[in-house]
Each structure stands twice: as structure tokens, then as C-alpha cells.
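Researcher: Let's do a round of design. I'm pasting the C-alpha cells now; please hold your answer until I've finished.
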């Protein structure tokens, strides 16, 4: 199997096994806007990646380079209509992560959603459900902005929340009692000058999602720091793929695919910075790290390939080393790409320091058993 095919096989395998975030809600409740915020993308950009999943839902995997999460989007539901969740539920059974229900704060008719959740809960009481109460501004007094600081707690705060909004949110929580594990009010109203921030409640939603389904967090938008996004959504998944490829107790056999995955990681990092040539990044890595530095790591790689033959611990040790080295290469690639994008060149000392920092992070993550968690 060619190296490019191995990379594509790894991507498909990751997509097939990534945990699923099932988005369930009526049309107009803000599902599309919420998805866009969760992945730092926008609907038009996401549309090419979306494909049919069932007769009532669509799906897409994210990030595209090596998926960490799958979205199942149940679309087109209308208040008053019945919805049979059995087909979407069967899809979710492959890798259940979280059901995220979107309900507009002013929505009164959610009997169909509650019936669907009751069916789902009866079949899978272990599945976690979070309700996002959206479009809060529809119940604000005219001209009012968002209540600040964010006042919502598990028991809806009445002051300074507008009374109509507090009553509506409380009624919804009572209606979904026993069907959900948490509620988060939020409002994503881009372009409306009176209502800032435009991602009101999103940090609280991400915190609730992390508490209920931590396995989803690496695939979600990491926040304002783009380098954290690269660490979570590019370096970690490719490091995991490289480590898995290098684990079989066969000297050299797993090392070549692992190097292909490392090359794919560097290519993905270069793309994140708008740089077209990953070959130039590799050349800068080799020149910056230095021949002596690379020779020592090449010798370590050869020794560890032989160590694979040691029963019980050999393959595990090699896999851990490959994971950490891949994290180091990724951190060095970030440093090169960042400086290249700013028309600068990192010093060899800075590049080696970035590599060692990434390797130490990789060691710590692997030792803590957090290979799927963010840095």
C-alpha cells in the first residue's frame, strides 16, 4: 500500500471511529449557526463536507485532515410534526458522544422533541443530552442587550434576566425534566450591534460539553489561539496515528507508515498557515534542527525498532516514543510556519527548543493516558 493510501486509510478510519455529536432541533432554532461556532467555520464553507447520513439527517467529520468528531445533523424538523428517531439513533450507536438539542427560548411547541428524547432515553439511558436554549434576544425588552455578566446557573437567575425570558427558560427546563443532563442559554446573533458579545453563552456551552462528553473536546473549536487549534486538531490526531502505526512488534514495518503520517501532519500545518509547500517546511526543519540533532534521533529510531522485539514492553515503549517525537516535530513545524508567514526565520536554537517542548508535552500526554485530549 502506497504512503498516500496509508494516510487516506488513517483518515477514513479516524472518521469511522470518531465520537458523534448528534444535533437535534427544530428548523430556525440556530443549529447551523451553533455548528459554525463549534468548528470555527461557516455554513457555506462546511456545506461541501456535509453528506447524507440517514433519511432524516446529514453528517460531516471534523477536522478534515484527520477527523476527531462527527456531526450528525437532524434537519428539517417542524413544531407539531412527529419524528421517528430510530434511524438516527442507529447511526449514533456506532460511537455515541453527546446529543445537543437546540430549542429557541420562545418556542412553546416542543412536544415532538420531547417524545423523541423519551424514545432515545428509553433505549439508551446512558447517552448524555444537553439542551441549548437559543435566540434569547427574542424575549428581551426592546433595545436591550445581553444580561451581563452571564447570569444563568442551573437554577435560572431572575435578576437581571428579563422576567419573560426567565419564565420561558424555566418552563422549558421543567418540560425537559428527566430527558436532559443540562441546560445552557445562549445567543449567537452576528451583526446585531446592540447585542455583544456575538457568542453569548458559547464558553458556558463548551464547558458543559466538556463536563458531559470530554472525548468530543479535541474536535471542537479551541478558542481564539490558532496554534491551540493546530495542536488539538492536527498534531494530536496524527501523533496518535503515527504511534499506532509504529506499535506492531515488527522492526521497520511500522516505522515507514509512521513517517508518512508525520509528513501528512507537517503538510496539514503548512496549509493552516496558507503555505503551499510542505517540502520547504521539511527543508527548513532539517536545516534548522541540524545534522547532529537529526542523527541522534535517527539512531534512537533504529534502536527502538529493534526494541520492538522485546516481549510485552517493547512495542509500547516505541509507540510512546513515536507519539512524543511526532508532537515535537509538529511543534517545530508550527514555529517554522508561523515565522515563515511573518517573513522571518527561526534560529536553530529556537527550533530545537520548540521540538523539545513539543516532545515533553507528548511524553506528558502519553504518560497521563490523554492521547485524545487537548494540550
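Researcher: That's everything. Go ahead.
Model: Designed sequence:
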Amino acid at each position: 500500500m502506497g504512503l498516500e493510501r496509508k494516510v487516506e486509510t488513517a483518515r477514513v478510519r479516524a472518521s469511522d471511529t470518531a465520537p458523534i455529536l448528534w444535533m437535534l432541533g427544530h428548523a430556525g432554532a440556530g443549529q447551523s449557526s451553533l455548528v459554525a461556532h463549534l468548528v470555527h467555520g461557516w455554513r457555506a464553507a462546511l456545506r461541501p463536507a456535509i453528506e447524507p447520513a440517514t433519511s432524516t439527517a446529514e453528517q460531516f467529520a471534523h477536522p478534515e485532515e484527520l477527523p476527531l468528531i462527527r456531526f450528525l445533523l437532524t434537519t428539517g424538523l417542524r413544531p407539531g410534526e412527529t419524528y421517528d428517531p430510530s434511524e438516527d439513533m442507529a447511526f449514533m450507536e456506532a460511537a455515541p458522544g453527546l446529543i445537543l438539542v437546540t430549542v429557541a427560548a420562545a418556542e412553546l411547541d416542543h412536544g415532538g422533541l420531547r417524545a423523541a428524547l423519551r424514545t432515545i432515553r428509553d433505549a439508551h439511558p446512558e447517552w448524555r443530552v444537553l439542551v441549548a436554549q437559543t435566540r434569547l434576544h427574542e424575549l428581551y425588552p426592546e433595545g436591550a442587550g445581553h444580561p451581563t455578566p452571564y447570569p444563568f446557573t442551573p437554577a435560572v437567575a431572575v435578576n437581571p434576566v428579563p422576567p419573560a425570558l426567565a419564565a420561558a427558560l424555566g418552563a422549558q427546563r421543567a418540560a425537559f425534566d428527566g430527558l436532559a443532563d443540562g441546560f445552557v442559554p445562549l445567543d449567537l446573533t452576528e451583526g446585531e450591534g446592540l447585542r455583544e458579545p456575538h457568542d453569548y453563552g458559547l464558553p458556558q456551552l463548551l464547558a458543559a460539553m466538556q463536563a458531559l462528553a470530554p472525548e468530543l473536546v479535541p474536535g471542537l473549536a479551541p478558542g481564539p489561539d490558532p496554534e491551540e487549534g493546530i495542536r488539538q486538531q492536527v498534531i494530536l490526531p496524527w501523533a496518535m496515528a503515527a504511534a499506532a502505526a509504529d506499535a506492531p512488534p515488527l522492526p521497520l514495518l511500522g516505522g515507514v507508515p509512521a513517517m508518512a503520517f508525520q509528513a501528512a501532519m507537517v503538510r496539514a500545518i503548512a496549509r493552516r498557515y496558507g503555505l503551499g509547500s510542505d517540502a520547504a517546511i521539511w527543508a527548513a526543519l532539517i536545516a534548522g534542527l541540524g545534522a547532529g540533532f537529526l542523527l541522534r534521533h535517527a539512531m534512537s529510531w533504529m534502536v527502538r525498532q529493534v526494541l520492538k522485539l522485546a516481549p510485552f514492553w517493547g512495542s509500547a515503549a516505541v509507540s510512546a516514543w513515536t507519539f512524543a517525537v511526532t508532537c515535537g516535530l509538529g511543534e517545530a513545524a508550527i514555529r517554522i510556519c508561523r515565522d515563515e508567514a511573518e517573513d522571518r526565520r527561526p534560529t536553530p536554537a529556537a527550533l530545537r527548543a520548540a521540538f523539545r517542548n513539543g516532545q515533553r508535552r507528548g511524553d506528558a500526554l502519553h504518560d497521563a493516558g490523554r492521547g485524545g485530549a487537548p494540550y
